[in-house]
Amino acid sequence: LSPGNRSEMIQHLNALYAGHAMTDFETSLLADHYYVLKEGHRMIAGLQVDFHHWQMNHLGGAGGWAAMHMIPHIPLLRDQFNPPNFKFLRLGNLFFETDRAQALYQLIEAVMVIYGVHTCLAFLDKKSPVYEAMARAGTFGLVNSLTETFVDVTARAQGLSAEELAQFRRKPLVISPLDI
Fold it and tell me: What pLDDT, in 10s, does the model give residues 100-157?
């Protein structure tokens, strides 16, 4: 994302995530880590990327043992999850134009090729219309179809009244890429 388009993208994100809680696009959007898909001069999809390369030596429990010892030998899964050499992208600040969620999937695939990874991670609230549009437009991948990770979000509600806190809890959340 060129620095000159950062303000425009923040406006797009604020519009897409209107009605969500915990939006912090002004703080979290890092233009030098943000990719966009354009149609002509119009930005139709965007995402922020953070590359990770982990070496895992141990995962607890029976599922952890299976992940460490079995998955690396299963052809389709070993590209997705290789514990001693696990490379993946953490995604955030996802954007797509109305009814164009498929464009975001195209962008995700292109960025995964650029980074040479087979796995990416994004935290989406199932109550969000953004999640619902993405679910209608495509799938969340092989690993997500096998297992789903539930996340609890903890926030300090300092200075909020009981009613404000209740309204906050009813809204879908945006998980900032800086908070993961």
Answer: 999 999 999 999 999 999 888 888 888 899 989 988 887 766 555 555 666 666 677 7
Contact status, residue 173 vs residue 20, Cβ threshold 8 Å: yes
Say which DSSP state 141 is in.
Answer: -
Contact of 46 with 34, CB cutoff 8 Å: yes
Could you tell me the pTM of the whole model?
A: 0.81
Neighbours of 45 (CB within 10 A): 24
Look up residue 1 and give its two tokens: 């994302």
Angle at which helices 129-137 and 101-115 pack, to 10 degrees? 80
From the centroid of its chain, how far is CA 129?
14
- Burial label for 3, CB within 10 Å (0-12, 13-18, 19+), is exposed
